[in-house]
């Protein structure tokens, strides 16, 4: 499998003038935990040359941050470098006294940390936190430091820097804080900047601005950047050299484009296949993949796969519309009443009201915000005159950045919030007036899935109790039939029935999200509101869950209202897209139309900001994603462990594997 | 900031009224007969009882009685004791003594508690941490009055380095040991709280960022760990003043200090309800006031509170 | 993209490293671990607890104290309330294990029977204060709005009266006879505020969690949610505080007894007060009840510490 061999320690003269600025050799890092030592990083090799950007890519727990933090000895107390060496500027700094490391911190090695919300001390003014970095590294003191701080903040792209320097972190937005952290990291002009997921907590447009700015700045200053990210697209866009980490080991490293276009290690292939930012079309459900095996996999192909056998064929006036019809056609059998209108793409524009499960009409939500004086509140319009339809069996995505009001819309659809004005119709009936039994019936038919996998399950409830709760609440079945139903639901979300007796704290984020899906499906709902349902998951897991959601839609005829900030995900899952900004709908149309012919400036900006969107992926069709057959563990593969429909989970014959979503 | 202060002040009014009502009702009505509560167990003729009823407004509805009482309290009129001396006068001489005692106790618990807590928190798991924790546990478990006797016995009686009784000479030097005894339980709590708080803040992201900036360890500790972790300690010390007031009664009894606590103790012995009510009311007022100051201090320390409207 | 920048020329030949597959085996995405035994939060907590020596020691001590409190007669034949002046101030030994007091009481018997008073007051006060505190705190935090304002002010009113001071006022009013249960009630009346504050805080943090919202979206009512999701998740810190409170109530009761506000029944605080004048001649009279009191309080504080460690969400894997 491996085509190139690793440069081993000692092959290169480390003290060479043109040598690497940072050279990590055979690095082992071990954490002492209550359950014994954990080898977080094993045998890692990487080097960063002056002025270049190297990205370490990996999922959470891959050891990427640990590797980076070990350089300037910022590991938590229970973590230690247990082997290998770290050389900075030709000097071995693995075990020099702490004082020497401290001399490097800030002035030679800067850090831009991950979470802007927690990385500034809330009790000190932003300016003084940069002042102290200047003072600590002997750059400037007192008034001179203050002056320099303002310059640095300006340089980091913070408007009105002089005034901002005197403010506290809580008066800053996330993006502004991140700019302040960049100013701080670069304050003493280090030669190496470690940027640990510097923008992962920010909106895409802000992310792009900040990364652009960081790029220009580091290029001007000749600073080398070690970029830590989970986003392959972003890494490829920003770095010349990629290092892919997986479970504490470096599995592949090399020039960014080469890795992206010719990945060698199966893990890298897997990662590239799953990266949503690199995908360009809607997912096709396993059912349709099976039924229409010979259909073309190209993005704008004309042939439209047909879902249900009794549904008329779709017309072929656009890839996305056809794909949308695929998903739409399946439940057509169920919704017999609308049979006449279910033909092809026509339903996108001419479908009757009978197809519309949920219609939002002129939704407006105004929150009273505390004003300058306590007794007077200022109204804040979170959602402003929003109207959209969700058609049966399809997915409508509401996409927007933070503060766009998208989640408020979701809450109103779920009737967790009452709209200030406007109404929400469920199958033509206003949900606002519903009470008692009628309301319970609505609850059964509209279910949510939330973002945070760690908050979505009650930690005190076993998995069985979690999934059974809705059945019990609605008085459905007896103990025996409920258990059968729970088993069935676990099977649907591709989890083993043995999971029933477990508790959420034993599960990974992706598994918890599957349980949340199972719970949402327990009442056989028609509509599922996914509020950032996959946003918190690692790429591969996200990909798996997206496939699962898509397959369930085809199988059960579900309609999804998909709330997300991630346009790349929208493209994979949605038939129609609603773009929101500051409470208003900016653009609204089929996903294809929105992605290929955006009308509004804001939509264009959003699209342009998807990281990695511009990367030329040579021969994306040719990337053969290896299935588990050559994987060490595959012989004891338990079918229930993985989504059987997942391209990496089995089905090696499936022609859509790999190509389907690259 | 201004609205924060205004809000805290406004919130204090119902709390003050409620607390006085609570004390009033409890003292005069919990036992059934308010006259007996006032006069203790002395046998009284019906005529005297009626006179007392009128004197103490007991012939009026409870709410009116209480309002009259609050009105007097606000004007600083706390009534007279059995001995005919105004209660306020008795407290006036006692108050500075107790104030000094409490100040010594607070200074001791804060300074030593925070220092020990910081050492313990930064050296978590080492022998010094374990030792300090054990000491704090022992101090909490052994009641103040036992620590008081033992200290008095060993240092006063056997070694003779401190006076056994403070008596009339309530100078700061003489109050050192009683202050130490009064503050020792709170010292243990401050230590434990500081330790928890320090360990929490020490692993915070912004502390790592500060380290990455190149700050010295001392700079990181003093500027980024200490200040952040002391905020909950400040709140605790404010709330702890209540414990100190209860403790002052005990400490003043042990060392024979003529403070507010001993006024209260004597009133308890004589079942002199009006004095008890007045002294407790004053203590509650002081307590509320210090907590207000602590809240304001909190706002000074934490800009997020300051800016909240 | 920065790939066109000149900086990259510093890197020598662009090597493409691929780890050998046998050294970096690929695992299934998000595989389910079916080997470990399932464990609920409480299951895991108790698993950790029984391995914690602090817990084991304090729990054993508390069991012993409970047994002594329930059956003090098993350990002594003397009645602690019957003084015999003919055997006043006897040294230890000779039938009286720890000697006798000036009034001729058997010290050992008084220490044993004092356990009963302390534990009864402590337990009753702890249970009552916890119930009051949880109810008020939970409603304040869960309902919010003006209910929260009112309940928070009520909490502050009781908080403004420190435990011992409040108890003194109540005590003097009830001059004619205060039983053990009454004293527990009085202590509970002024000792519930920290429980209420903690409950309010944790309820506030739990009530906005997604699993509560999810339950609402499933059709669960507000009270169902409070009882089934919010409270069970908010209760852990309450248990810890209640355990420590038990120790605090025992100290408060002995302080009151020391100040002469006793119940009439045998209590350590009262005995310590009685032993004080004889400190010079017979310091052991002071030592025995003090030691018993310290052990008792220490047990509950240590138990609270151990439970806190076991329930600490940070110590649990997510």
From TrEMBL, chain A:
Q: Name one Pfam family in it.
A: oligo_HPY
Residue ranges, annotated region (Disordered): 1-20, 285-315, 633-662
Record's GO cellular component terms: plasma membrane
Any one GO BP annotation for this protein: peptide transport
SUPFAM superfamilies hit by this protein: P-loop containing nucleoside triphosphate hydrolases
Q: Which GO terms describe its molecular function?
A: ATP binding; ATP hydrolysis activity
Location of the protein in the cell: Cell membrane
| Taxonomy, superkingdom | Bacteria
What SMART domains is this protein classified in? AAA
Renumbered to this chain, the Basic and acidic residues biased-composition regions fall at: 635-648
Q: What is this protein called?
A: ABC transporter ATP-binding protein
Source organism phylogeny: Bacteria, Bacillati, Actinomycetota, Actinomycetes, Micrococcales
Automatic annotation (TrEMBL), chain B:
Q: Name one GO cellular component term.
A: plasma membrane
* Residue runs in coiled coils: none
Major location, coarse class? membrane
For this entry, the protein name equals: ABC transporter permease
Q: Which residues form the ABC transmembrane type-1 domain?
A: 95-298
Family (UniProt): Belongs to the binding-protein-dependent transport system permease family.
| UniProt entry keywords in alphabetical sequence | Cell membrane, Membrane, Transmembrane, Transmembrane helix, Transport
Annotated transmembrane regions? 12-31, 97-119, 131-155, 175-191, 230-255, 275-301
Entry's localization field: Cell membrane
Offer one example of a GO biological process linked to this entry.
Answer: transmembrane transport
Originating organism: Brachybacterium endophyticum
Q: How does it sit in the membrane?
A: Multi-pass membrane protein
UniProtKB/TrEMBL annotation, chain C:
Residue ranges that the Swiss-Prot or TrEMBL entry lists as coiled coil: none
Q: Does Ribonucleoprotein show up as a keyword for this record?
A: no
Q: Which PROSITE patterns match?
A: ABC_TM1 (PS50928)
Topology in the lipid bilayer: Multi-pass membrane protein
GO terms under cellular component: plasma membrane
Report the SUPFAM superfamilies cross-referenced here.
MetI-like (SSF161098)
Instruction: Determine the domain of life of the protein's source.
Output: Bacteria
On whether Metal-binding is a keyword of this UniProt record, the answer is no
Q: Family, per the entry? A: Belongs to the binding-protein-dependent transport system permease family.
Kindly provide the name given to this protein in its UniProt entry. Answer: Peptide ABC transporter permease
**What is the organism field in this record?**
Brachybacterium endophyticum
């Amino acid at each position: 499998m491996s085509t190139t061999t690793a440069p081993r320690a000692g092959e290169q003269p480390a003290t060479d003038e043109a040598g690497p600025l940072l050279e990590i050799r055979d690095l082992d890092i071990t954490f002492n935990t209550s359950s014994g030592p954990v080898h977080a990083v094993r045998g890692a090799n990487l080097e960063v040359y002056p002025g270049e950007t190297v990205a370490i890519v990996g999922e959470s727990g891959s050891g990427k941050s640990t590797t980076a933090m070990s350089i300037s000895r910022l590991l938590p107390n229970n973590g230690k470098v247990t082997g290998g060496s770290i050389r900075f500027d030709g000097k071995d700094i693995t075990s020099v006294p702490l004082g020497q490391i401290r001399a490097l911190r800030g002035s030679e090695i800067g850090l831009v940390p991950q979470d802007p919300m927690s990385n500034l001390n809330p009790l000190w003014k932003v300016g003084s936190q940069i002042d102290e970095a200047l003072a600590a590294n002997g750059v400037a003191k007192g008034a001179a430091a203050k002056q320099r701080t303002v310059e640095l903040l300006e340089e980091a792209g913070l408007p009105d820097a002089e005034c901002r320097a005197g403010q506290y972190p809580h008066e800053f937005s996330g993006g502004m804080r991140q700019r302040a952290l960049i100013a701080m990291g670069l304050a003493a002009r280090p030669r190496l900047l470690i940027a640990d997921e510097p923008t992962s907590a920010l909106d895409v447009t802000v992310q792009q601005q900040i990364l652009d700015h960081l790029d220009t700045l580091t290029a001007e200053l000749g600073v080398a950047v070690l970029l830590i990210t989970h986003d392959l697209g972003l890494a490829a866009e920003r770095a010349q050299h990629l290092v892919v980490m997986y479970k504490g080991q470096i599995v592949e490293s090399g020039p960014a484009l080469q890795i992206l276009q010719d990945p060698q290690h199966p893990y890298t292939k897997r990662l590239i296949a799953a990266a949503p930012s690199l995908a360009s079309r809607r997912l096709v459900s396993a059912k349709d993949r099976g039924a229409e095996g010979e259909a073309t996999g190209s993005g704008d192909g004309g042939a439209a796969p047909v879902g249900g056998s009794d549904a008329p064929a779709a017309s072929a006036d656009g890839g996305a519309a056809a794909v949308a019809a695929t998903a739409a056609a399946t439940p057509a059998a169920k919704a017999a009443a609308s049979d006449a209108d279910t033909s092809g793409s026509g339903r996108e524009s001419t479908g009757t009201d009978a197809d519309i499960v949920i219609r939002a009409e002129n939704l407006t939500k105004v929150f009273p915000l505390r004003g300058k004086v306590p007794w007077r509140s200022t109204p804040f319009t979170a959602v402003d005159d929003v109207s959209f339809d969700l058609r049966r069996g399809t997915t409508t995505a509401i996409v927007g950045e933070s503060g766009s009001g998208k989640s408020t819309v979701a809450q109103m659809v779920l009737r967790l919030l009452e709209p200030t004005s406007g109404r929400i119709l469920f199958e033509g009936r206003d949900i606002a007036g519903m009470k008692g039994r009628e309301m319970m019936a609505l609850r059964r038919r509209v279910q949510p899935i939330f973002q945070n996998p760690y908050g979505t399950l009650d930690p005190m409830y076993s998995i069985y109790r979690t999934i059974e709760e809705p059945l019990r609440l609605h008085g459905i079945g007896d103990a025996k039939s409920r258990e059968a139903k729970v088993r069935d639901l676990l099977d649907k979300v591709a989890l083993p029935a043995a999971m029933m007796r477990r508790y959420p704290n034993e599960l990974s984020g992706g598994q918890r999200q599957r349980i949340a899906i199972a719970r949402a499906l327990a009442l056989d709902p028609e509509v599922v509101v996914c509020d950032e349902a996959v946003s918190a998951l690692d790429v591969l897991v996200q990909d798996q869950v997206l496939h699962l959601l898509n397959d369930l839609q085809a199988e059960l005829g579900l309609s999804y209202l998909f709330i997300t900030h991630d346009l790349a995900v929208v493209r994979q899952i949605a038939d129609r897209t609603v773009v929101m900004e500051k409470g208003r709908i900016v653009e609204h149309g089929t996903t294809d139309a929105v992605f290929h012919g955006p009308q509004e400036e804001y939509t264009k900006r959003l699209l342009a900001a998807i990281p990695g969107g511009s990367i030329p992926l040579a021969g994306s069709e040719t990337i053969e994603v290896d299935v588990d057959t050559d994987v060490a563990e595959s012989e004891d593969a338990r079918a229930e462990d993985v989504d059987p429909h997942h391209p990496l989970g089995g089905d090696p014959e499936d022609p859509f594997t790999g190509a389907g979503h690259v | 900031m201004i609205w924060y202060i205004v809000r805290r002040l406004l919130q204090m009014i119902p709390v003050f009224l409620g607390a006085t009502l609570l004390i009033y009702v409890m003292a005069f009505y919990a036992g059934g007969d308010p006259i007996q509560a006032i006069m203790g167990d002395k046998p009284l003729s019906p005529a005297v009882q009626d006179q007392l009823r009128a004197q103490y407004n007991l012939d009026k509805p409870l709410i009116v009685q209480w309002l009259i009482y609050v009105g007097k309290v606000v004007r600083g009129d706390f009534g007279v004791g059995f001995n005919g001396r105004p209660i306020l006068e008795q407290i006036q001489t006692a108050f500075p003594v107790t104030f000094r005692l409490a100040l010594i106790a607070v200074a001791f618990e804060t300074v030593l508690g925070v220092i020990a807590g910081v050492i313990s928190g930064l050296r978590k798991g080492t022998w010094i941490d374990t030792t300090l924790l054990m000491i704090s546990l022992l101090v909490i478990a052994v009641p103040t009055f036992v620590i008081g006797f033992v200290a008095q016995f060993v240092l006063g009686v056997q070694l003779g380095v401190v006076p056994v009784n403070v008596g009339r000479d309530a100078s700061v030097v003489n109050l050192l040991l009683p202050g130490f005894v009064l503050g020792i339980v709170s010292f243990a709590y401050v230590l434990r709280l500081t330790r928890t708080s320090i360990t929490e803040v020490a692993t915070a992201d912004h502390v790592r960022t500060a380290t990455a900036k190149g700050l010295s360890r001392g700079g990181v500790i003093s500027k980024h760990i200490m200040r952040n972790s002391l905020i909950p300690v400040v709140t605790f010390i404010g709330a702890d003043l209540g414990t100190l007031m209860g403790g002052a009664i005990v400490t003043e009894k042990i060392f024979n200090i003529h403070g507010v606590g001993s006024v209260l103790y004597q009133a308890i012995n004589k079942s002199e309800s009006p004095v008890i009510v007045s002294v407790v009311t004053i203590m509650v007022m002081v307590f509320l006031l210090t907590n207000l100051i602590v809240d304001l201090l909190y706002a000074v320390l934490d800009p997020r509170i300051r800016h909240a409207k | 993209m920065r790939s066109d920048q000149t900086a990259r020329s510093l890197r020598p030949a662009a090597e493409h490293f691929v780890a050998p597959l046998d050294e970096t085996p690929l695992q299934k995405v998000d595989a389910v671990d079916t080997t470990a035994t399932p464990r609920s939060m409480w299951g895991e907590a108790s698993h950790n607890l029984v391995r914690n020596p602090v817990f084991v020691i304090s729990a054993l001590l508390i069991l012993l104290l409970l047994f002594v409190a329930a059956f003090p007669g098993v350990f002594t034949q003397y009645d602690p309330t019957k003084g015999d002046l003919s055997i006043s101030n006897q040294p230890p030994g000779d039938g009286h294990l720890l000697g006798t007091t000036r009034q001729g009481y058997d010290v050992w018997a008084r220490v044993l029977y004092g356990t009963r008073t302390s534990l009864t007051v402590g337990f009753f006060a702890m249970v009552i204060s916890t119930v009051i505190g949880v109810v008020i705190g939970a409603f304040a935090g869960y309902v919010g709005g003006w209910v929260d304002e009112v309940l928070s002010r009520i909490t502050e009113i009781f908080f403004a009266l420190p435990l011992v001071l409040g108890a003194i006022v109540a005590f003097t009013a009830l001059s004619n006879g205060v039983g053990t249960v009454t004293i527990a009630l009085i202590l509970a009346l002024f000792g519930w505020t920290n429980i209420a504050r903690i409950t309010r805080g944790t309820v506030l943090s739990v009530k906005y969690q997604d699993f509560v919202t999810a339950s609402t979206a499933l059709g669960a009512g507000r009270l169902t949610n409070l009882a089934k999701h919010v409270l069970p998740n908010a209760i852990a810190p309450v248990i810890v505080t209640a355990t420590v409170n038990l120790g605090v109530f025992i100290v408060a009761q002995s302080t009151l007894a020391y100040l002469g506000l006793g119940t009439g029944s045998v209590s350590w605080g009262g005995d310590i007060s009685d032993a004080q004048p004889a400190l010079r001649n017979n310091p052991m009279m002071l030592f025995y009840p003090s030691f018993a009191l310290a052990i008792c309080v220490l047990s509950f504080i240590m138990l609270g510490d151990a439970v806190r460690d076991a329930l600490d969400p940070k110590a649990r894997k997510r």
